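Worked problem 6 (solution included).
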Amino acid sequence: MKHWQMAGHGSSVGVQDAGCWALGNIASCESLGLYFVGWNAENRIAIAAKGGIEAVVRAMGAHESSAEVQDAGCWALGNIASYVSGLRSQVRKADAVPFVKKALSAFPDDWLLQYHGKLFLLKLGIRSVFRF
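Solution. The predicted structure is:
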């Protein structure tokens, strides 16, 4: 799933959900079969360079009522922003933070979305969503 395929099917919740998950998977790690090898910065950088961050943000904006798209978007953004400081600033410039905060507010009982969204915010150094 390429981000430009997501753009061609912007009204499809299923395509946007699958596209966000695909980008998140590509960003998450490099593996050999079932064995985890390590984090893959090159994939994250390529996703960002080809507009993947913006594609995820567009999907989240177009499908605010879909918990599935919101969760997949939070997860993808969190993986893209991991371990590469320059990408964290790109994610901020793409205005991803307000979409993630809105998803957290809209789906307070979705524990997986809450986990992915808050983990994303932690990766950006935003701790204001946590109550201690």
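Discussion: The chain has one domain: 3-123.
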